[in-house]
């Protein structure tokens, strides 16, 4: 945003969306109103999910964008649209968030009993009732649903979620205990995500298959983005870990899988020397040693290439 | 006010500009806060790199009666460092969000500076003397051989080159889960508040290991969160009163005497929405980015995306005055939403008290300030005269400014034919935003921060 400070011009095609906001009741302008609404909806989704900050995104911004999405959804609901809108809230099963949650007790040291200084200012006669800020540090940290990434460049596909009250409240209870999404929901979300993967850029309208029967027959609009206010780290955190897992997992296992090699280099338990040697073998095309593990090497290279592509792409 | 030469109109002249000249802006140099101290002698800026730079005004040169003292660098120090939150695997920015000066009590100066998570109390002190004439040490610090000491002398203080030292005296940490947006020192000068998106805490300046929560708007279920705290400030005279603004355009006034947890406001200030201006972006542009009490405490000013509003504390249902900062942007809100400009947080400020204002106040027994200032895009900033209801747009730019030349008023052409010297809305540079401005507490000197430069303007003294 802060490059050379060149003057900005507004795109021509956006002119149709700017100008006076048309009310939804105008006849011929209803199309442009709907178009504007749709555009804003898409922009809002992209803002929430394409943002991969190193620092926490602004809670205020997240809240405002969320409110925007909710308002549009309410409008659509009231208009009685039969076509459910996809909302990006895919919730893949998230074992990492459990670990995340477990780390929280580290903050218990902050929950010290409120000792009130005797010489506290006289402007605070009710000091004995005040809550020390330290006691508030048992906030649930973010374990919001992480976005399922196809790859670094594609926007994540939206997924469907039920709006049944009982289900939501049950969800809430479960989230209170364990913020990771329930498996049923995750499965449903994943299947929905799979369905909609094919059209990531299309704005809407698929009745997802594979949803559990608990969903009502009449398509309803989803509650978008539950718990995404704490989105902050999970998204970035989990993404990084996922890549790391791929990275290290693959390299490690490939290095350790040298059955033919172990016979040459000795017992299979010698992991470290094997790695170094095999790395040299990988790098030295003219290795004098019989490159019996050629096949694994080749697989490693292509996998490494793929991983590098993913990394560079991100 | 538009340079018409009225008796009381201020004519602003360029005085100084601080910062790098080239267009390539280093991220760390982006100015994030500007604040005069209580006397106006010191001017502090904070930047995205966590540094604080303090400028000091020269003593007025009696021979140069046509200009006030210039501001020169007095002290520079690294207030905050970037941190890493290992639990969330995220960086904690070192950017200085706010600086607030304490009133001066002795030779040293004190200020509070805060980033997203930690507030620090800094002491800035001068050293202009040093002891000389030790018996056992040479002047360069080497120890003398005791056997060579034949006489004794008493060390004395001798003048040295002025050295300004900044040292952190208190660190107030671990009290905010969310990002701190405001700090405000109480009129008792012993306590202060810090506000993040969902909570406001009360501190004592001497005590760092505990603070008390006085506002908490975090819902039990975060999914229900629809509103956050955007700014907070203590009343200038009443030490139990403070206000906080929200992302929905409301301001709540709270009295700490009413209850320990001030979740229930004493007053709620909110203007009903104008149905003719309704759009998808109504809520976002109503979000208040800054709130400032007037000097008397009878009024407060709020800044939302398109306007500045003056509220009388005795009237909750609507502001007493509303000033449009850049109404021509109303038709561009969709684009501004897309490029995130709609989330820019503009600040606003009152003018300091000067003789004119005090005289008028005495006549009308109205102790409010009379001119308010706020920033806009394209390095424009705006001033609104509450008395004459006139406004002016000025530009902070190196190009058109020579010292003691009166600034030329600028005008933006919203639509239709663009007159000469006008700028069309589509030509505005939205990367050049003035978010932070400050007014000297006593004189007509203003500090205006562009992205990485600090401009100082003065009124033309005749």
Automatic annotation (TrEMBL), chain A:
Compositional bias annotation for Low complexity: 181-191
Q: Where is the composition biased (Basic and acidic residues)?
A: 8-18, 204-221
Q: Which domain of life is it from?
A: Eukaryota
Region Disordered, as annotated, extends over: 1-29, 143-164, 181-223
A Gene Ontology CC term for this entry?
Answer: nucleus
Residue limits of the SERTA domain?
33-80
Q: PROSITE patterns attached here? A: SERTA
What is the official name of this protein in its record? Answer: SRTD2 protein
Q: Which gene encodes it?
A: Sertad2_0
UniProtKB/TrEMBL annotation, chain B:
Alphabetical list of InterPro entries matching this protein: PP2A_PR55 (IPR000009), PP2A_PR55_CS (IPR018067), WD40/YVTN_repeat-like_dom_sf (IPR015943), WD40_repeat_dom_sf (IPR036322), WD40_rpt (IPR001680)
Q: Which GO terms describe its cellular component?
A: protein phosphatase type 2A complex
Its protein name is: Serine/threonine-protein phosphatase 2A 55 kDa regulatory subunit B
Q: Name one GO molecular function term.
A: protein phosphatase regulator activity
The organism is: Poecile atricapillus (Black-capped chickadee)
Q: Which family does it belong to?
A: Belongs to the phosphatase 2A regulatory subunit B family.
Origin superkingdom? Eukaryota
Which Gene3D superfamilies does the UniProt entry name for this protein?
YVTN repeat-like/Quinoprotein amine dehydrogenase
Keyword terms, alphabetized: Repeat, WD repeat
